[in-house]
Amino acid sequence: LACKCRKSVLSYEYILMFDEVSLKKKLTYDKSRDRIFGYSDIDPKSIADSALVFMIKGVRLKKAQPLGYFLTAGPAKAHFIEQTIRSTIEKLANIGVKIIATVCDQGSNNLMALKTMGVHSDNPCFQIGNNGIVSIIDPPHLIKSTRNCLSNKSNSIQFEEEKCPRWEDIEYVYSRSCNDNFRMCPKLTEGHINVKNKLKVKLASQVLSRSVGTAIRYLYLSGELSSDDTSKFVLKFDDIFDSVNGHELYSTKTLKSAITSQSPHLTFFLDSISWLKTISISRNGKNVTKKFKFVEGWIQTLTGFSKLWTRSNDPVLFTRTFNQDCLENFFGKLRQKTGMGGLLTPQSFIAAFEQLSFQNAVSISDEGNCEEDGTEIMLPAHQILDICLKDKTYLERVEEVEEPPSDKTGQVSKIPKM
């Protein structure tokens, strides 16, 4: 990666993504390497059941590169994530890779790590050296969390003090649409209403969409529904999701266009943050708003995009770039590579990771949970070979590598992957 950056004429900015993937606990002995696979990299006495993966992605370049992984027993601890974020960004800066943002989901360990670094919803930034970095919560995860909260009928959501959206209104729209010759919401299916696959982003975004919101409003105006509160809630989140999903310079939906000096995004972000702060959630008469992190997550993300635009020297900012689709697609490709429908074992994960880290494309089939984003690997295998053969300093560094130390059991210790 350092060789690639040295040969690049332009200085590019990147996003650092990190996420965990579940593994099946299994110890495997590799006779050819004389190595046992399956122990945690952090606690060698424990058997790994997940892997924490780090990847960088270009802000303007459609390029990404998996950086490394750590096998862990259970979710990685917050302090370990924090330390790894810091050291990774510092090491990348040393080779000319400038990180301007991080993207992750709202796992409790991720949130605690970011909080330790000074990140909060109203100021989603942290400092490493002279670099100010913005923390974005993955928008696809946020739209799914929003849908999950609304679809749970034990929850009572209020916004703007007295307005109460109801999942029953969406169920009615679906039922009404199924019985009409002309379907108001043709994309709605049973899978959207009785949510079993909570990981599919499109099942959430198609429920919280303009077509559904408009249909609810129509049924309210025609007297079939008693309130249009659900319509207002759905339409607002449709706009919010559009605003963080811009991938074209111009779109028929204005907020789904790129951020420019002429676009309404900054004003919309400010208005939406104020609106989000009116949301409260209760259950059995008890206020449980703090238990649902999606509201704070949206505030943090919209504030983060405002910060990114203010700091940017570019004439446009494509908001869809700042999500984890690339990493999620990589996870999907890992599973496909092994030919297993279930969980990866540590050994199959490592083998697939090492191979896929140097393949050209990061794409998956239609079975994935998110959209294919067309991102390619920065360092295809043929380029690495070409760089290594031409770069004399690489050969010099290879000669300096020492034999990895052995532990007390006589096994060769694992070489750090970061």
From TrEMBL:
<dbReference type="InterPro" id="IPR048366">
    <property type="entry name" value="TNP-like_GBD"/>
</dbReference>
<dbReference type="Pfam" id="PF21787">
    <property type="entry name" value="TNP-like_RNaseH_N"/>
</dbReference>
<protein>
    <recommendedName>
        <fullName>Transposable element P transposase</fullName>
    </recommendedName>
</protein>
<dbReference type="InterPro" id="IPR048365">
    <property type="entry name" value="TNP-like_RNaseH_N"/>
</dbReference>
<dbReference type="Pfam" id="PF21788">
    <property type="entry name" value="TNP-like_GBD"/>
</dbReference>
<feature type="domain" description="Transposable element P transposase-like GTP-binding insertion">
    <location>
        <begin position="141"/>
        <end position="253"/>
    </location>
</feature>
<feature type="region of interest" description="Disordered">
    <location>
        <begin position="399"/>
        <end position="418"/>
    </location>
</feature>
<feature type="domain" description="Transposable element P transposase-like RNase H">
    <location>
        <begin position="12"/>
        <end position="118"/>
    </location>
</feature>
